[in-house]
């Protein structure tokens, strides 16, 4: 595998309990690429992210191979230095009682808050401020996470994921539970991240989450890759009708696609 490859999966199958959730996934993603994984709820998108981040593991078969950044095996604590993962959930029960800037710094330690035994350096503080500036969230530095709106919390969690300058930012349903204004603010901030050169791998079932900078779409259905290609070829009424099983009307505006 070349140095330009972030992820390579060959014939990867994942079971959760007695159910096979991913079926023989073969996929390659380059470093710095901007990719959206699109599909209905329950299609296996989030399990794919969990497989990439080693939260779940593939079934071992003679044909299966999975490499991340050129390695088949990773110490999970080392892997976290290369990936920034953002989900809809806060990292732990202490996070709501933590100031915004401290929640971001805690990302260096994969901790829910800055516990007394953690050694925080001036460089860590500076990089936390840098990540907050990128997310246009410096005004949230001293606000408790639990007192923030859902949109503000999401920006803090993305800054936390970016604080160690990961190779790829992984986003699992980033706009869930956000109102229209917060969705717009989040998408604008993520565009800044993409334009800075950080790779983005986004899981979503909302077409409007797909940023103009995302030029590749992977469609998933029933645990399999249904289609994979340039967004201009796949974001069509016909393909979306096949993917979601409903008639779709599309409109493009300012680089975003909307459907109803």
Automatic annotation (TrEMBL):
UniProt keyword list: ATP-binding, Nucleotide-binding, Transport
Coiled-coil ranges (or none): none
Annotated organism of origin: Paracidobacterium acidisoli
Transmembrane segments: none
Family that this chain belongs to: Belongs to the ABC transporter superfamily.
InterPro entries: AAA+_ATPase, ABC_transporter-like_ATP-bd, ABC_transporter-like_CS, Metal_Ion_Import_ABC, P-loop_NTPase
Transmembrane is among the record's keywords: no
Limits of the ABC transporter domain: 7-247
A Pfam family hit: ABC_tran
Keyword Transport set for record: yes
Signal peptide: none
Name the UniProt record assigns to this protein: ATP-binding cassette domain-containing protein
Gene Ontology MF, one: ATP binding
């Amino acid at each position: 595998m070349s140095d330009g490859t972030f992820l390579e999966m060959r014939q990867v199958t994942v079971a959760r309990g007695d159910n096979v959730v991913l079926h023989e996934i073969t996929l390659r993603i380059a470093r710095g690429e901007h990719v959206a994984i699109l599909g209905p709820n329950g299609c296996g998108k989030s399990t794919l992210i969990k497989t990439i981040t080693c939260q779940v593991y593939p079934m071992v078969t003679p044909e299966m191979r999975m490499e991340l950044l050129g390695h088949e095996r990773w110490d999970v604590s080392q892997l976290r230095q290369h990936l920034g993962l953002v989900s809809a959930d806060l990292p732990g029960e202490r996070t709501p009682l933590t100031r915004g800037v401290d929640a971001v710094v805690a990302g260096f330690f994969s901790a829910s808050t800055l516990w007394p035994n953690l050694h925080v350096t001036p460089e860590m503080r500076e990089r936390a401020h840098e990540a907050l500036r990128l997310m246009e969230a410096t005004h949230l530095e001293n606000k408790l996470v639990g007192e923030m709106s859902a949109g503000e919390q999401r920006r803090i969690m993305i800054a936390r994921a970016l604080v160690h300058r990961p190779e790829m930012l992984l986003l699992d349903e980033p706009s869930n539970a956000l109102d229209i204004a917060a969705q717009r603010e989040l998408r604008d901030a993520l565009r800044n991240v993409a334009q800075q050169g950080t790779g983005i791998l986004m899981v979503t079932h909302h077409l409007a989450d797909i940023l103009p900078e995302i030029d590749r779409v992977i469609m998933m259905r029933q645990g399999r890759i249904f289609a994979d290609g340039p967004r201009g070829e796949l974001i069509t009424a016909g393909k979306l009708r096949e993917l979601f099983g409903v008639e779709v009307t599309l409109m493009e505006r300012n680089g975003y696609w909307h459907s109803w």
